[in-house]
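User: Hey, quick favor. My workstation is busy. Could you predict this chain's structure for me?
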Amino acid sequence: MIREHVTLAVQDHGGKGTPLLLLHGAGRTLADWAAVAPLLARHHRVLAVDLRGHGYSPDGTWSIPEVLADIEAVLDTHGIPGALPVGHSLGGMLAVRYALDHPGVTPGAVNLDGYGWGRPGQYVGLDPAYVEERLAQVRELAATVAGQLVPPGGLKDLLAQQRAMSAQLGIPYELLEAGVRRSVHERSDGQLELRPGREHALEMLAEIDSLDPFELVRRMDRPLLLGRALRPVPSVPGLDRFDELMAAYAKGLARDLAELAHSRAEVTVADIDGTHAMLLENPRPVADAILGFAAGLSDDRP
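Assistant: No problem, here it is.
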């Protein structure tokens, strides 16, 4: 089947060596890689992209096959079809899926903290029925805020939130500001919205729910780096009712990743000193984990 693709916005960080393609998370942009990419480009050819409907990339129906076709087109255009896909959050799941769909071409994959909401049994100490109920609330909340419009003066409020996050997590404010400004776009009616827009954001959420990261890992027969954030995201007023859920999931995730690393020779697990915002919060250990993994790949393709 022929897949339609959109022409993605690309930031070329240059460099030489094994090519890397950097993929961001849901609702984020290539700006998330601003602190990590220069560290990687000392040893690798590095490209970062805005996924369809994000940042400066065009809109399009948000489905996994179309997104993968976008990625393939970028690599073909730049003459690096054998690049190593490196993703964070949703981008990490896409990296693994891309590698699975391109056997014999893609040397492996890197998934940094991209595990979705998991399975009820991964929430250590909690009743599965209770977990299902709470996850339904999480999904409902995510759908409510998907593709939200920015009210008059709202951009100022968003930037104020980023400044508070900068102080809380120690992330340089200019990195957070760049991400917000890249995500907020003016619609044809003059209103501002956070990309992706609501229609495509809801499509994206449905696609995320369709992915089982551990099932993807079980299918992988090439080297795979799985990164895990060691620290929880700080509690947010109004969302702290989910703190118990997230703490239980962190325990189950640590358990299951350790089992994977023990049972699968091709899987490497890296514990990253940071929260889910690791790319901006603590770029050096993220880059070191990627560099160490890439150095171990036997096939150094141009």
